[in-house]
Amino acid sequence: QVQLVESGGGLVQAGGSLRLSCKASGRTVSRYGVGWLRQAPGKEREFVASSNWNIEIQYADYVKGRFTIFRDNAKNAVYLQMNSLQAEDTAVYYCASGIAGNYDAWGQGTQVTVSV
């Protein structure tokens, strides 16, 4: 059974930084694609960043230059470093794992709140 557990969310002032962690069990994430997605209140879930098994990385335009996705294969974990946070980044952040963007495993989510 695949489990993804996010952590690192919290309350931060605009302009601040947070690092989200996603630790996996039951699956070796280095062999799969991993993505971060988010959902703000009243909005649909949206793509944030992904790292494919071949290390191809993609970012949504609204986080490019501010967020960085990276892996620690030794820890079977994926991280999302978020800098220059804005109020619009407030959301529940989810990590997900799968193949070719078809995510079949999801974490429970971690809340990120950016205050102005």
Question: How does the SSE layout of this entry go?
Answer:
Elements: E1 3-7, E2 10-13, E3 18-25, E4 33-39, E5 46-51, E6 57-59, E7 67-72, E8 77-82, E9 91-99, E10 102-106, E11 110-115
Parallel strand pairs: 2-11
Antiparallel strand pairs: 1-3, 3-8, 4-5, 4-9, 5-6, 7-8, 9-10, 9-11
Please summarize what this structure is.
With 116 residues, this protein is mainly beta. It is 0% helix and 56% strand.
- Per DSSP E runs of 2 or more residues, the count of β-strands stands at 11
Q: What class would the helix/strand composition place it in?
A: mainly beta
- The averaged pLDDT comes out at 95
Low-pLDDT stretches? none
End-to-end distance, in Å? 40 Å
List keywords for this structure.
single chain; 116 residues; 7-stranded mixed sheet
Can you tell me about this structure?
- The chain is mostly beta strands.
- Helix content is 0%, strand content 56%.
- It has no helices and 11 strands.
